[in-house]
Amino acid sequence: MHSSTLIGAPPVGWLMTHDEKAFFRELGARIAALRKEHGLTQTQLAETLDLTQQMVVSYEVGRRRVPVSLLPAIAEALAVSLEQLIGQKAAPAKRGRRRSSSSRSSVFSGYPAPSSASSWRCSTP
């Protein structure tokens, strides 16, 4: 392998804004905290994710960006939702009545109904 070849995501700070750097450091800290809460070592988490222990370390300390494609597997391994993993609070459940199908169809009541399915077909000469 050529020495300039990158494996995984580029290091944090490489073409990233200040906000992005902060996000990946906080994400790494959350991964480390959740891993410890579940009594997992870095090596165990790495094996679960098919990574090296060094990559897990790099993610946890914020040295490397966690690839988006890896987030669902990390969330599953740590038994949390993606929202919890990335630090978003779950949106509150919507309250109120759901529209019944009849009330939904009333939205379209002002539009004329087609007279037959054939009226929608294109005729060819």
Q: Write the H/E string, N to C.
A: HHHHHH
Mean pLDDT: 77
What is the annotated CATH architecture of the domain at 18-86?
Orthogonal Bundle
What would you report as the Rg, rounded to the nearest angstrom? 25 Å
Question: Can you identify the CATH superfamily of the domain at 18-86?
Answer: lambda repressor-like DNA-binding domains
Give an account of the 3D structure.
With 125 residues, the protein is mainly alpha-helical. It has a domain at 18-86: lambda repressor-like DNA-binding domains (434 Repressor (Amino-terminal Domain), Orthogonal Bundle). The chain is built from 6 helices and no strands. It has helices spanning 18-37, 42-49, 53-60, 71-77, 82-86, 101-105. α2 crosses α3. The protein is globular, with a radius of gyration of 25 Å. The protein starts with 17 loop residues before the first helix and ends in a 20-residue tail after the last helix.
